[in-house]
Amino acid sequence: MAVDGTNGRFSAHNQRFNELRRKKLKRREEKLFRNTLKNPDKDKRANFKELDPDTTAKVKSEVRKKAQKLLRRDWYMLIVSIIIAVALCYYFFH
User: Fold this and answer.
1) In angstroms, rounded to a whole number, what is the distance separating the alpha carbons of residues 81 and 6?
2) Contact, 64 vs 72, CB < 8 A?
3) Does the keyword field hold Transmembrane (predicted)?
4) Contacting residues for 5 by C-beta, under 8 A, at least 6 apart
């Protein structure tokens, strides 16, 4: 008896699997078609301007500063929430 899916239970599984794959592809194609009808401009690719190295360095530094500021704010919020949690536990259980 071959175990390549040509007979019995394996064959039924392969048939169901292929049927589901066809349905999935059909749904995906219909969805893409509907979306292109709704937004015909979406197929156009974005054109980005070329930036000189000075501008890219400036933008990178600004992004890094913002990221550091957000990270610092997250750490402060974490510390404050831990302090509040410890204070509430102390208040309720002591």
Assistant:
1) 61
2) no
3) yes
4) 11, 13, 14
* N- to C-terminal Cα separation, the chain: 72
The DSSP-derived string for 29-85 is HHHHHHHHHH-GGGGSPP-PPP--HHHHHHHHHHHHHHHHHHHHHHHHHHHHHHHHH
pLDDT of res. 13: 84
Sign for the pseudo-dihedral over CA of 71, 76, 79, 85: negative
pTM: 0.44
Among the listed residues 55, 35, 31, the one whose alpha carbon sits nearest the alpha carbon of residue 43: 35
The count of residues in the chain is 94
